[in-house]
Design a protein that fits this description.
This protein is α/β, with parallel strands linked by helices. Helices cover about 20% and strands about 30% of the residues. The longest helix is centred in the N-terminal third of the chain and has 10 residues. It is globular and about 40 Å long.
Amino acid sequence: VDCGVKHNILRCFVDRGVELIRVPWDYDFLSLDYDGLFISNGPGNPEFCQKTVDNLRIAMQQDKPIFGICMGNQLMARAAGATTYKLKYGHRSHNQPVRMIGTNRCFITSQNHGYAVDTETLDPKVCVPAFTNVNDGTNEGLKYVGKNIFTVQFHPEACPGPQDSGYLFDRFLKMM
């Protein structure tokens, strides 16, 4: 689902041999035959994408893998019943430290977003935080309980330096 996808995300999938069906953010993708659903990054307020959120809410009930990046993280959280909010300054750099919750593992990530998921509104029976921003404690990704669904707020396809979070694409492909 193209919400304003960065072309390097498409390259990351194509380089891994994935056949892509690219649809716009407001497309009713539920009728398509697909192995996995990817929700891309994109600009703007996730509150304005209600049609996508409604479709994602239905897709979450199916047994197909879902992976979201950036706005995809926010839209999936909203589909799960959580809220989002505008950050005062946003995260706009390629040196954002992100920690994988429950570990000491930290990634230096690239980010460009102005909204974040309010983790206080998450239903822990549906999804839980998977990553957190070391600088300000904001949510950087979610894992969905009992589902093959995960999302990240940062950009694992970005190339500001080490590509240590690129494994997330491989993780999604293994789920499919």
